[in-house]
Structure formats: C-alpha cells, structure tokens
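INFO batch 0412 | record 1 of 1 | parsing
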Amino acid sequence: MNRRIIVALIGAVLSGVASPSAAEPRPAPLTVFAAASLSDALQAVGKAYTARTGATVRFSFAASNLLARQIEAGARADLFVSADRQWMDHVARAGFLIPGSRRDLLRGRLALIAPADSRIRLSIAPNFPLARALGPSERLAMGDPAYVPAGLYAKAALTRLGVWQSVQGRLASADNVRVALSYVARHAAPLGIVYETDARAERGVKIIGIFPEASHPPITYPAAIVRGASSGARSFATYLNGPEAKAIFRRFGFRTF
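INFO prediction complete | emitting tokens
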C-alpha cells in the first residue's frame, strides 16, 4: 500500500482516539415534577445546573396532588418535589419512590395578599375580621382546601385563628397556588392566601400580613427520586441540596434546611 495512504490512515485513527469527547453522547434530559409555587426558583436552579453540567432539566409544574396522581398513573418523571409532605407520603406508600432518596428541601411561609393598589389593612390575629374585609359579596382566593397544599395550609391557619367558618362559603378556590395568586393580581378577588414566595414574585399584589407559623403545619417541600429515573437524577438531587442551589432558593425567598 502506498506509504502516504498508510500515514494518512494512521493519522485519522490517532485523531479520533485523541478526541473521544467528540463522540460522547450528551446527558439525557431530566424531567422534574414540581409544585407550582416553585416555578421561578426551580427554573433558575435548572439553568444553573445545565450551565455547570450540560444536562438539560425539564420541569412540569402543577399542584402537588395532581403531580402525585400523574406519577401513580405512570407518567415519566425523574424527580418529584412536593409542596407538602402529605402528597410525598402518598407517592412513597404507592411504591413509586427510590427508598432513601427523599430529603426535605425547603421551607416557606403563608401570606395574606391583596391587589397592589388595595387600601385594605388587616392584622392577622385570632378572630380577625377577614370576612368583613372581603365586603358583602367578594370572595377569598386560595388553593382548593380539599386537596391543594396551599389551600390545606390556609384552611388550617384560618381554623386555628377562629375565622374559617366566616369565610368557608366565600372561597374562590383554585387548582393551584399560582392560579389563586392570579385571581388577586387581576382584581378578581380582593384578598387571597398564598405562599410568601409567590407573593414576592408577582408585582400585581402586595402582602397584607404573614400567618403565624404556629397556626398551620410546617410548610415543607420534600424532594425524592422516582423509580425508573435516569442515571442523572441522583446528581441533580444532590445539586438541589448543595450550596449553589440553596443560594438561588434563598434569593427567591425560600428558607433551606
């Protein structure tokens, strides 16, 4: 064989060996099911993770109960981040989580909100006049207290403060906390109860007050890896609990463990 041809062939083989990274596949995209109240913060965390690792993170945001039901029905997810422990417990009992992968990730607070231009003033305390502040016919926006975590927390707080009975028939119930937030921002409701972090993310509302933490169960966001997850799920779960992600979460108003 012509010597020049042999040299060229050897050079081609060596160049291929010298740059294996060119042939390495990109990491498979991760799919994260997460509570709607985490939309802004988790997207920021996902961008930071992609910049660091090259792995793409896709999010599906909705009420935790809806996401839990989707996982039960066989929806493909690598991680689940719930807005409360109850729905994470539900998925765990059904056998859809990898044992030992669950961690409490974040903590939050519950806020009473009004449209940004509202003149309503209230002090959250036992028996405070919430129904009177709504006026004769308006409704209180909040997550559906039958199953949405933010609504469950709100109902617990109002019950503990002795005002639930006065407003339970006057609710503008929402499928998730971000919908309840939009009701108030659009003046469809004069008052609403959402997470403090949601209120901070919406310029169309202002915070009237923060509910005492003793008035409701702790607002806790657990995260866990779903059975059948891709190999990169554990890496992202570790990142969520690391200093870089925690700094981002704190920037959005969450408290970290």
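INFO post-check: Confidence is low (pLDDT under 50) at residues 5-23.
INFO record closed
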